[in-house]
Amino acid sequence: MSSAASPHRRFPITTRGTLLLHLDLLVTGIVMTFLGPMLPILSVRWGLNDERAGYLSFSQFLSSMFGMLLSGVLVGRVGYRTTFIIGLVTMASGVTLLASGPWHLGIVAVCIFGFGHGITTPAANLRTAEINPQGSASALNVINAVWGIGAMIAPFLVALAQRSHRADLFLYGTAAALMLLLVPFLFVHFVPDVRTETGSQPHMRKAWTANTLVLICALFFVYVGTETSFGVWLASYAKRLNSSSRSLWAVTPAFFWGALLAGRFLAPLGLKFYRETTVAKLGLSLAVTGGLMIMWARGMGTLIPGSILAGLGLASIFPISVSLFPQWFGESERNASSAVFASGNTGGAVVPWAVGMLSTHTGSLRLALVVPLLGAASMLIFYVAQGARERIPAALSGPANRSA
After folding, report:
1. At what angle do helices 248-271 and 136-163 cross, to 10 degrees?
2. Which domains, ranges and CATH numbers included, belong to the chain?
3. What is the value of pTM for the model shown?
4. Is the peptide bond before 192 cis (omega within 30 degrees of 0)?
């Protein structure tokens, strides 16, 4: 009796946590994306070429991969609420550490806050899907749109800090926001707070050995790598195209993230009338077009529209793909999710680093941006094939229904 009542005495406020989840993803969006617009500042501070600068993004997302692998374990052992608390504290610590120190300390700082958002992101997405079993695709689009608000705000905040030559103020302010958000998490009780386990060991073995798992892991590897590459390198690319501007280059990624945000708000409307794969194909067609415009840009007049198209096109791919987990994995979706999310973060580590390495070795960041362009094109091919697979059963069932 006393043990059952104790959570409510310790945590007087019980909640499903929807508002806190959205606020957490908002600040996480800033933490995950500010490295891109800050990269030129850090490159000057530490004297980095593109390849070495790419190691910052590589470190962030590689450490985030380990956070994602641990996220599901943490939720199972200590619940969602404590998992989010750990993520907030870790992100705040890493961002604070980045404010000062040499190159190697910067790598450590990036790894720390990368680990923190790696813990947070899958937990937030999975909880959102669990508490919204009907219409999970729309709910995931909304919460990821909130993440997009944070991603869009980050370049403007960095630009403000850059104009005053006080990048450390942005970092300390972001750490303070994370710690402020921590306070309500300390005084609430999530209901429910742990995942309800479904499936069994045979399901788990099936998920980890199925060809489907490998294919979806590759999809997330390419998606996160493509999105992150645009987010990380657009500011550096813009600065080289428009070096006379004091800070316009720093806000260029905001056009990409802002379009991604708008797309995630608009996607639920499209999903009311069209299949998920149809919306994904339309989006990826826009992303390929935007990627081509970015590569061919000679000034901001082409770069900004290209960034908008790329962001708008990629907007719905992550939430749609997460919503298709039950279709792809059945009862094994939870067992497969950690591997899929970790693969995505591996892509976020490897692909932007590959862009930097290619830029350094070819002497052309423009040429190196072919990497995310090819990523968008390969995802378009995947969803075209996925749509064809959906149409085949419908075509086969049509004649049978008519004959009946």
Report:
1. 170
2. 10-194+201-391 (1.20.1250.20)
3. 0.75
4. yes
